[in-house]
Design brief:
alpha/beta; 6-stranded mixed beta sheet
């Protein structure tokens, strides 16, 4: 499974890339078969900080699946009170999840209504034994629960590529 973040910022002092003077002709390029190197499904596990930055992140993953560990919902609940931007984002995200869940059970993959076929699911704590953070870390923190949820998804859906999306550097490093 992978950890992802937003694209790195570029500084003004980077040199422009030179064009390849002799491009490879199309006839010599390796042609890939449809099954080669392709992942059937991508599942993006979102950390709370992603949703506090942009509450619409739930719908920004096109036709892919988005998983939210229950810990993320608990953290959003704690952030909903206040007048700062992060509090607004938490409330707006909670409203989106509430609207999406009206006719569905959040423990199943449900449509996110982005027009591209994306789906959303809440991952409950203890859904599987594949989470290994208890064996590695002494404390049971929210970051470790989120990491466990990603590990569980990878174990339960081995054909999928599970990607943890976070703005938290320490979580990505773990």
């Amino acid at each position: 499974f992978m950890a992802a973040t937003s694209p790195p910022r570029t500084t003004g002092n980077t040199a422009p890339q030179k064009a390849n003077p002799s491009p490879t002709p199309a006839s010599t390029k390796k042609k890939s078969t449809p099954k080669e190197g392709r992942v059937k499904t991508k599942i993006f596990v979102l950390d709370t900080c992603v949703l506090l930055f942009d509450h619409t992140a739930l719908t920004n993953f096109e036709e892919n699946k988005v998983a939210l560990p229950i810990t993320v919902l608990e953290e959003l609940d704690r952030f909903k009170v206040g007048n700062e931007t992060k509090h607004f984002e938490a409330r707006a995200c909670i409203r989106i999840i509430d609207r999406l869940s009206r006719e569905h059970t959040l423990q199943d993959w449900i449509p996110v209504e982005n027009g591209l076929g994306g789906e959303l699911k809440i991952i409950m704590d203890g859904d599987c034994e594949a989470g290994a953070t208890k064996q590695v870390f002494v404390e049971s923190t929210n970051d470790h629960k989120i990491l466990d949820a990603a590990l569980c998804l990878q174990a339960n859906e081995p054909e999928a590529k599970v990607i943890l999306v976070s703005k938290d550097i320490n979580l990505r490093l773990k």
